[in-house]
Amino acid sequence: MALRSVVYKVDLGISDLDRSYYAQHNLTLARHPSETDERLMVRLLAFVLHASETLEFGKGLSSDDEPALWDRDLTGAVTRWIEVGQPDERLLRRACGKSDEVVLYAYGRAVDVWWRQNALALARLDKLRVWKLDEQICADLLRFADRGMRLQATLQDGELMLSDDQDTVHIRPVPMGEA
């Protein structure tokens, strides 16, 4: 019997003072059977940081042809391709060929080793921006992981304040190479 995805419902209010974007999003996220809560929450964080009316979750782990998230224009052309984790450099190179901009949120215990192994190749990808999420950020995000989440996000001066009814965390992703 095949394992099924776990469905998460998120009621998300976003106040992005940096971009003057204010919206309420009712999201349904499917956590693939091989996906961790940590990866799911990093995908949700990426949504918060790049929220728009056209930003969508891709098939992610289920497909090599779709990212974790993407933003497309009215013609269907990909304007922003967002990945999470420590993907292979070839995948990021392919994404740069398909999109105007590629953003990666790198996380995990071995993220610094992954960066040292890939930094030179990734530096050649001028459309790519890589952000590091340290272990504390991921631990903070996991405090919110629940199948029914009600979150409020406020972004100002590059810092995110994410909160629910009981907890608030402050998150500031760091560009790789500056960590």
Give me the side-by-side strand order of the main sheet.
Answer: 3-4-5-6-7-11
CATH superfamily: Restriction endonuclease-like alpha-beta roll domain
What is the CATH architecture term?
Roll
- Rg: 16 Å
Poorly predicted segments:
none
Global morphology: globular
Précis, in short:
The chain is an alpha/beta fold and 179 residues long. It has a single domain (6-175), classed as Restriction endonuclease-like alpha-beta roll domain (Restriction endonuclease-like alpha-beta roll fold), CATH 3.10.640.
Describe the structure.
This protein has one domain (6-175): Restriction endonuclease-like alpha-beta roll domain (Restriction endonuclease-like alpha-beta roll fold), CATH 3.10.640.10. The strands form two sheets. Strands 3-4-5-6-7-11 form a six-stranded mixed beta sheet, with helices on both faces. The protein contains four helices and eleven strands, in the order ββαβββαβαβαββββ. It is globular, with a radius of gyration of 16 Å. It has helices spanning 37-50, 89-98, 111-123, 135-142, and strands at 6-16, 21-31, 55-57, 69-72, 78-84, 99-107, 128-133, 148-156, 159-163, 168-171, 174-175. α1 packs across α4 (135-142). It has 179 residues and is α/β, with parallel strands linked by helices. This is YaeQ family protein.
